[in-house]
Amino acid sequence: MIAARVTSGVAAPVNLRTSLRAIALIGIVVAVAAAYGAAIAWTGGHPLFAIGPFGVLLTAAVFARPIVGVYAAVAAALLFEQWGIVGLDSITAQTHFFDNISGFTGVDLRVSAADMLIALTLAAWLAKRSGSAEREFRAGPLGYAISAYLFCFLVGVLIGLARGGAWDQAAMLAELRGPVYFVALYFLATNLLRTRRDVMRMLVLMLSLVGAKAMQAIWNTAVISERGIWLEAVTSHEDVLFFNAAIVLAVASALLLGRSRTTYWLTALLPPIVLAELLTQRRIAFIALAAALLVVSVCLAAVRTRRTLMVMAAGTVALAAYFAVFWNQDRGILGQPVRAVKGIIAAEGISERDRSSNLWRDIENANIAHTLREVPLTGVGLGQQYFFQQEPPPLTGFTYWRYMTHNAVAWVWLKAGLLGFAVLWWIVVQTVAVGARLVRQLEAPSDKLIACLPIALVVGQVVYSSVDLGLTYSRPMIVLGVSLGLLAPLTSWVVDLPRALSTVAPARSHLIPRHAATPPPPVAVQRSAVP
Fold first, then answer.
1. What is the reported pTM?
2. pLDDT digits 0-9 by tens, 168-225
């Protein structure tokens, strides 16, 4: 093939086959564009047609840089609701990003946009990895536990299928999505987020979108106030997990970084996030926040002892004063934390709404206990209903309420068996242990701050999921998977002093002062084979 170029003023001949291919390609592009324009005109500009160009661009970007898919998945998880909010018609709840295509179109395809994005990112990463031997696969500090979690759910699929009877394929797919998203995003984040720039971009993206979501909650409150109506929620229930993580990081930043741009930025995000937390009126949000703050504070006390203890003491005094003032005023926005505590220690003083919610969960927990007595080792498996000893009032707005329980921690036992339940706690304990170790060993305070994120999210997640559907929802499982994946680059940044000393070049021995003792010969350090 001869390229068309000019040499000494004479144009080289152009290959005819190349010209024909170029003309054919241009013709195809023009034909597709014309057909696309005709379809838009014929349907009156249906919004779904905007997905086409965006999907093509996103696909190209993900295959060029698979890390873009991880950023996109996290952004979608933080911005788009998985379920609609009753009484509100916000644009983020109308994207259908987590819905099966068959649920909002005439196409019988039980695949969602989230499924396709995660599958695309996995395919792009595997393609890049197969074409280059530069970077080895790494499982990160939680690799074995995360893999075991997926294995237990796959066994749960087989158990549910083997039980036969009223096995429901659609329910099985709905139950499996959360665990699969969690595992896939963990390994993607572990292998694609490697540099400090990658990790900091992810952290800034997360916190910025959490702040945007808080502003949306405040806007939704203004909208319903203008309409003169009252709603139980102004944002999705699981959004409080993200609000809590941002609040914990703001406190951790103040303890670790002091007066810094990061601390000022996080402090600026606090007012809308705290207000949104109050407006969501989720009792469990404040219990999960308290648990996450306590665990992270204990971890930080190892490196900022005096400052952390002073903040904990001041916080205890402030909380005591708050409860003294608002104990009998738990009906307003400012009384929401009191409402949460009363639901635990003074149930006789709670509202009728909270009493009804508690009663439903009490019936559900009794049915869970009955089921686990019948099948304690294997559970019922995915796609199978758990056993009802007492029939609760039906939940009309939740299709799979006979399959998924509000107590999502116990749901893991119901669906993945006793082994899956044990693996869940393995993940929780190991995340806190690894995160606490990184807080002590990492040199840079900003790295220590990042290590607080997985701790805050996993503690908040398990507390929240004890009474709500946290472990079954796609959104929090995507964010949790990526956050736990951050432990891999953080672990690689820990300075290995013996190894560093063993690699000092002999030529630099003149840097050692004459009066200094002769250093011992370098000792070879055996690196662990554990990924």
1. 0.84
2. 999 999 999 999 999 999 999 999 999 999 999 999 999 999 999 999 999 988 888 8
Residue pair 156/189 in contact by the 8 Å Cβ criterion = no
**In whole angstroms, what is the distance from residue 413 CA to residue 425 CA?**
11
Q: Taking the CB of residue 159, how many other CB atoms lie within 10 A of it? A: 21
What is the residue type of 379? Answer: G
DSSP three-state, residue 303: coil
Single-letter code of the amino acid located at 76: A
pLDDT band at 108; cut points 50, 70, 90: confident
Please indicate, yes or no, if residue 391 is contained in any of the structural domains. yes
Single-letter amino acid, residue 93? A
Residue 46 has a pLDDT of 53
Note the pLDDT of residue 27. Answer: 62
Residue 93 belongs to some domain of the structure: no
Grouping H, G, I as helix, E, B as strand and the rest as coil, residue 7 is: strand
Say if 270 falls within a structural domain. Answer: yes
pLDDT of 512 > 60? The answer is: no
> How far is Cα 435 from Cα 241, in angstroms, rounded to an integer?
18
**Based on the structure, what is the number of domains in the chain?**
1
> Is the distance from CB of 122 to CB of 184 less than 8 angstroms?
yes
Return d(Cα 196, Cα 133) in angstroms, integer. Answer: 22
DSSP state of 100: B
Q: Which domain holds residue 172?
A: 141-494
- Give 502-516 as a DSSP string: HT--GGGGGGS-TTS
Q: What average pLDDT score do residues 66-82 get?
A: 93
What sign does the CA torsion over 102, 107, 111, 115 have? negative
Q: Are 134 and 397 in contact (CB under 8 A)?
A: no
